[in-house]
Amino acid sequence: MTSSRPILITGAAGFIGFHLCHRLLAEGRQVVGLDSMNEYYDVALKQARLDRLKGFANFRFEHVDLADRDGV
User: Which residues pair with 61 in a beta bridge?
Assistant: First the structure.
């Protein structure tokens, strides 16, 4: 049985974060993904990953930089 509490994943659009989110979502878990969408590498690739995750009804994305105290 899966928990109804959401799981918070930072770096959701990155390589590891995306794959972790995808696996948890496929298991039916609720996921809240955070990412700053910085330009460390291709933002278009990050956006494409997010677009795939947004296909899950149990996914919510927040565009936030954890270094921004007011934003958090």
Answer: 33
In this structure, what token pair is assigned to residue 13?
A: 């659009």
Please state the pTM of the whole predicted model. 0.88
Q: 58: closest CA among 4, 15, 10?
A: 4
Q: What is the DSSP letter of 28?
A: T
Q: Give the pLDDT confidence of 19-40 residue by residue, as tens digits.
A: 999 999 999 999 999 999 999 8
> Minimal CA–CA distance to 13: which of 57, 59, 58?
59
